[in-house]
Design goal:
The chain has 2 domains: 3-69, no CATH class; 87-121, no CATH class. Helices cover 51% and strands 7% of the residues. The chain is built from 6 helices and 2 strands.
C-alpha cells in the first residue's frame, strides 16, 4: 500500500489535537506492513505517515499482538529473496535442507554454502 494512502487512512482516526483514537485493526496491520517493507531508516517513515515515534511504536506493538493472538491470520506462503539473505547468512536460525536427486537431502549450515554448491552444479 502506498504510504500517502496509509497516511490519509490514519488521519481519519486522529482528533483535532492529533491524538489517534480507536484505530481499526486493519489499519494497524497496514502500518506494520509498511514498517516491515520500508527500505530506509524508521526515523524517515514516521513523518511520512504523519506519526510520532511513540505513536508508531504503539501501533507496531498492537499489530504484533493481533498477529500473535490469531486475530489476523498470516499468509502461509512468504516469498524469500536470496539477495537480501546473502549479507545475513550468519544470522540464520538453522540449517537449510534441500531435497536433491532421488530423495536425497542435503543440509547446508549457511546460505553461502548453498549458493556455492548451486554455482558448482550449474
Amino acid at each position: 500500500m502506498d504510504n500517502a494512502i496509509l497516511k490519509k487512512r490514519l488521519n481519519t482516526f486522529k482528533s483535532a489535537k492529533g491524538v489517534l483514537r480507536k484505530v481499526s485493526d486493519e489499519v494497524v496491520i497496514d502500518v506494520l506492513r509498511a514498517w516491515e517493507n520500508w527500505p530506509g531508516r524508521s526515523v524517515d517513515l514516521y513523518p511520512e505517515l504523519g506519526l510520532s515515534k511513540m505513536q508508531m511504536a504503539i501501533m507496531i506493538k498492537k499489530a504484533k499482538q493481533l498477529i500473535k493472538s490469531g486475530v489476523v491470520v498470516e499468509s502461509e506462503f512468504r516469498e524469500v529473496k536470496l539477495d537480501s539473505l546473502m549479507g545475513a547468512s550468519s544470522t540464520m536460525a538453522g540449517p537449510i535442507e534441500v531435497s536433491w536427486d532421488k530423495g536425497k537431502v542435503i543440509r547446508f549450515s549457511q546460505v553461502d554454502h548453498l549458493v556455492d554448491f548451486l554455482k558448482k552444479v550449474a
